[in-house]
Structures are given as C-alpha cells and as structure tokens.
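Appendix B, record 7
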Amino acid sequence: MTWEKPGDLITNAAGSTILIVDDNPEDLRLSMRVLEKGGYTVAGTTSGREALATLREKTVDLLVLDLSMPEPDGFDILRTVRRTMPQLKILMISGFMDGRLLDAAKQLGATATLQKSLDLDSLLSTVNSLLAVSDNQKHSSAPPTRI
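Structure tokens (predicted):
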C-alpha cells in the first residue's frame, strides 16, 4: 500500500504496521510487496522528510530504512528517531558492500541491519523476528511516542 498523503497509513488486524523508506522506487516496491504478502500493512516512501512527517503523525511498529538517501540520509533519520522514539524497531538496509556502515548504524541504534542486495526471504524473516519481539514487549511497555 502506498499512501497518497502521509496520513493514509492503516493498521492490519494483527496491529503490525511497517514504514519502508528507500530512495530507489523499484527496491521500495519489491520490499513492500514481499512484506504485504507476509501479512503486514505496509506503507512506503522515497523521501526521508516524508517519512519523518509520517512518524510524527502515525504510529508504526517497524521502520525499514535505507542508509544511503538524499537529505536527510539514513543516519540522520536514525538519529532523529532514536532520540524521539527510542522503542521503535528499526531495520537499516544498505547497498554498500562495506559492512562497516551497517555496523555504525547498529551502534547508533538500529535494531537490525541487512545488506540491500538481500534476498526477499531474508527481509521477511528478519521482519518477522523483529515484530515477534515487538509484539511480546507491547504487553508490558508504554504506548509509543511520536516525533
């Protein structure tokens, strides 16, 4: 599901929503498709600014974030979200083959990382794992705050 404006994000019956941010429209479309087929409600954007606006207005369970993007880049978005929404699960993805960038993202607070050249089964498996942990924590944690 791609929204027409940032506020058009709807949760599914399981209550799990995912926001994907990737400046490559084809990668975004493929990621959205595999996660939707996995049973998640998914919204996507190629704009970091639009992603931050959406996170201010809507609650999501997982943010899938591309590292290399135009202003703001993935690191900038990660820092902002970690400062304002420390409980949000963030899966950082990168097409850079140098794993040091993903290691740096982990140190800045990414919950998990994947190479962008990932196979789509790995994406779904990682998302399933992250949201299973998130669902278990929901019962004992405070409601998420918005940016």
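Remarks on this record: The radius of gyration is 14 Å. The CA atoms of residues 5 and 54 lie 9 Å apart.
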